[in-house]
């Protein structure tokens, strides 16, 4: 490309814009840009009219064929993010061991440590015990839920074994997630307690980070299909 710094006001051609777009596609494929950044920069690329407008778009990205700093291939000691790291064991009593909602609500979610036994009570109210991003004080934890004219929702991530032992009177406990084998080394969650004119539900959901990753993958695939379609249309116009 022409020296951008010397001629920032020189009009850019379609070929110049396409070269910048190609650098962005390579950066997306290599993980240097996420989907949102890629879309923003690609939109700015096709709107650019001069070299001065194109230059900042790829200033922090390597040109095709340019050598980049070497990355060490020696594995460093880092948290693996597996179940072993999330079961803290020992004397950890957990971040919180109980919760109460009386005509109100409670939530335990995010990065917290679930104790060996978590007691919760909901009366004319509701609560959520979300274990998707939680650490566990032991390989087996008990969620003891009492719901009187109210409800408690227990959310577990995929891979966790669930056992439901609660008793319902004019109410009930959700058993749908029982019987699903757990991953090797994953914790076991026992849901017990009592429900009267209320209910205790159990849901299995993906962690938020995983849901976001899947959304980004779908967006990327959609954008790649659009780009492929655009190239096909441009190719047919050239012929």
Automatic annotation (TrEMBL):
The lineage of its organism: Bacteria, Bacillati, Actinomycetota, Actinomycetes, Kitasatosporales. Transmembrane segments: none annotated. Residues 211-239 are annotated as: Disordered. It comes from Streptomyces pimonensis. This is DUF1707 domain-containing protein. It comes from the Bacteria. Residues 10-62 form the DUF1707 domain.
